[in-house]
Write a structure and sequence with these properties.
By secondary structure, the chain is α/β, with parallel strands linked by helices. The chain is built from 20 helices and eight strands.
């Protein structure tokens, strides 16, 4: 392969991004890409006045950069604008189609032109495996190339730590509706790069609705605008009816192995925990529309029932377990009703994390304090040898005492691990435990109860 065919020197600000063929035939999203950083919209947190990235580019002192964010937020556009502004040699690689041989060729070509500042732009960097990423390290470290990586995946999970530590990481956010709408309006009127020659117009309301439908993805919005405009067949106005087909085919941005999956289930869990049934139902609907496995959602509901509802509503766990079983044997789409039922129950139930806290405290005690032995009166007394050693002697059978409280101890060193909350059904548990503590305090404990008419059964 000829690596020179993959690169370009942005020696003139107006030089077009290499794509081949007539620029007018390229997709609108490509034609409307920002030519300078000042044209980039919606990322003021990393490109605004005084920001780190803007200063580094202005001084041409940046090293390797990683751009992380959802599709259509400007990762490629920013990389091209940086290369153009710094008049750098620009080499583009797509990690989906690349391999080790191509990487070696690209890096070798960069070494042969040491006078040129080569920017190596790798789209979908997360697709490179560890070996491919490691191959980049020596040339990145020595400054042979300045890497700009673009990824929709969390770099903390998909980029090798050595490469991550040598790069500045910048997160791009989904574009606001206003930012997307502004670019759509510009594209409609731009005769040089946009759709101005078609004579198609659109009202502010229509452009707003189209921007909303595209969920902050500018590339998707421009592609939709181009398809709708070309479909008009001549000078005319885009109407709300023209958006109807696009709206019906709207695809929620949701990928089972990417950040949308983890972020959305996190929002769902926290909405249920925070007792907001409306938010919980919204995130549930988003997951189902995005194709999430309903069994995954059902499992999370089972966990929520114990972790966050707990003893405040003891019916939550059996209901969540029943929902999990129902999802298995009913299947979609009817199982969506089951998940909605369980979600609303969990979200509106009184909350208590006392079981979670008690388990955590018990684990902490086990790890930080001497491990307690089982008291002799609680040990199994089965077999003659056990009886000769006195195991089980002194055990007081709880059912022989009012309310089942004998006064005996069940630990060598008593602990206080469970602290009931005061809400829901757990308020009654707190009251009951207080009464039992008073009963226990008024009765003899331990071996004083031994063999005093006890009707002990079993072990």
């Amino acid at each position: 392969m000829n690596t020179d065919d993959q690169s370009e020197l942005f020696s003139e600000p107006e030089t077009a991004v290499r794509g081949g063929g007539d620029p007018a035939t390229r997709p609108l999203a490509v034609r409307m890409r920002p030519r300078t950083l000042s044209e980039v919209v919606g990322q003021d947190h990393i490109l605004g006045p005084g920001s780190l990235l803007a200063r580094l580019v202005a001084q041409n002192t940046f090293g390797s950069l990683l751009f992380y964010g959802p599709p259509g937020t400007g990762k490629t556009s920013i990389a091209e604008a940086i290369a153009r502004q710094t008049r750098s040699r620009f080499v583009r690689v797509n990690a989906v189609m690349s391999n080790m041989a191509e990487l070696r060729d690209v890096l070798g070509a960069a070494r042969r032109v040491p006078g040129a500042r080569t920017i190596l732009f790798i789209d979908e960097l997360h697709r490179f495996n560890k070996t491919q990423q490691d191959l980049l390290l020596p040339d990145v470290e020595q400054g042979v190339v300045r890497l700009i990586g673009a990824t929709t995946h969390n770099p903390g999970f998909y980029v090798n730590p050595p490469l991550l530590s040598r790069s500045h990481l910048f997160r791009l956010e989904p574009l606001s509706t206003e930012a997307v709408k502004g670019v759509l309006a510009l594209a409609l009127g731009d005769r040089e790069r946009g759709l101005g020659g078609l004579g198609v117009t659109a009202s502010d309301r229509v452009l707003t609705e189209l921007a909303v439908l595209c969920d902050g993805d500018l590339r998707r919005a421009l592609n939709a605008l181009e398809v709708i405009s070309l479909g008009r067949g001549g000078p005319s106005e885009i109407t709300a009816e023209d958006l109807a087909t696009f709206a019906r085919e709207r695809r929620i941005r949701y990928d089972a192995d990417e950040d949308e999956h983890y972020d959305t289930i996190s929002a769902f869990i926290k909405s249920c925990r925070g007792s907001d049934p409306d938010a919980a139902m919204y995130w549930l609907a988003k997951m189902l529309a995005g194709g999430e496995d309903p069994r995954f959602v059902a499992r999370r509901l089972v966990i929520l029932a114990s972790e966050d509802v707990g003893l405040a509503d003891p019916h939550a766990l059996p209901l969540a377990v029943a929902a999990h079983h129902a999802v298995d044997f009913v299947g979609l789409p009817e199982a969506e009703l089951t998940l909605a039922h369980a979600t609303l129950y969990i979200a509106t139930a009184p909350k208590s994390n006392s079981a979670t806290l008690a388990l955590g405290e018990a684990r902490r005690t086990l790890s930080e304090e001497p491990v307690q032995s089982v008291p002799a009166h609680l040990r199994d007394k089965g077999g003659q040898a056990s009886k000769r050693m006195g195991q089980g002697r002194g055990y007081a059978y709880s059912h022989d005492y009012p309310e089942g409280i004998s006064g005996q101890d069940y630990l060598e060193r008593p602990l206080s691990l469970y602290a009931p909350k005061g809400g829901g059904a757990e308020a009654a548990i707190a009251e009951r435990l207080g009464r039992w503590r008073a009963l226990k305090a008024g009765r003899p404990a331990g071996n004083e109860l031994a063999d005093k008419g006890s009707k002990s059964v079993g072990s």
